[in-house]
Design a protein that fits this description.
The chain is of the alpha+beta class. It has 3 helices and 13 strands; from the N terminus they run αβαββαββββββββββ. Keywords: Signal.
């Protein structure tokens, strides 16, 4: 016969595990050098945070090191110790911002961390990284350009293609792979759309050449900047 204690034990273990779940931090590497990303990520993880590195252009309202969350409760004692540790790394006077509108990752106690290196070296193609959706195209669905200079193209009715990408001379992007052998070229177009209360940066990739797999498939991604 099971005792009351044996019934409550699994519940206690479950609640204890839930209570020990790591707070998630989205570390934005957009204005960080690669060595800094590794250093900051190691620091965050040593402080007990669950770290996911993202690469997103900061909103126009953020131009210095900032912590963001959708809830003020997320900025607890653990974040205070994190700010002190970041200060020792040279990231001083980190401000905090509560995100109350729009779509963002910072739900619950999730935190966004934007850091800025004073000696940041801009990488070619930084503004074109991200996930694109095909416009008015039946065959191609998406194109993703990663910060590791890798790409993946998904299609509606065939296997995805993967390889590497490079910006050899703006405004042109080169997608290439040896297996299968491919060489795709796109021309980049930047546009900013403004309304009364917001602005969106649009990036379009126009295919060059007559490759059957990509012809007539314009790719687009957008990012709200305020």
């Amino acid at each position: 016969m099971k005792t009351a204690a044996s019934f409550f034990l699994p519940f206690f273990i479950l609640m204890t595990a839930a209570g020990c779940a790591s707070q998630k931090v989205f570390l934005n590497d957009y204005k960080l050098n690669e060595s800094s990303v590794e250093q900051v990520q190691e620091l965050l993880e040593s402080e007990g945070f669950d770290v996911q590195v993202i690469s997103v252009q900061p909103p126009s309202s953020i131009d210095s090191s900032t912590l963001l969350s959708g809830s003020r409760a997320a900025f607890g004692p653990s974040v205070d110790s994190l700010v002190k540790a970041l200060d020792e790394l040279g990231y001083h006077n980190i401000s905090t911002t509560i995100v109350q509108r729009g779509n963002h990752w910072y739900r619950g106690d999730n935190i966004g961390l934007y850091l800025f290196d004073a000696d940041f070296t801009e990488k070619p193609g930084r503004d074109v990284q991200g996930e694109y959706t095909a416009e008015d195209c039946e065959s191609m669905e998406t194109l993703t350009l990663t910060r590791e200079q890798e790409f993946i193209i998904t299609f509606a009715d065939s296997e995805p293609l993967a390889g590497n990408w490079a910006v050899e001379s703006m405004p042109y992007i080169h997608l290439f792979s040896s297996t299968p052998r491919l060489n795709f070229y796109y021309q980049v177009e930047f546009e900013r759309i403004k309304d009364f209360s917001w602005e969106v940066d649009i990036v379009r990739l126009h295919p060059l050449g007559n490759h059957v797999q990509i012809q007539d498939c314009v790719l687009v991604k957008g990012l709200r900047v305020n």
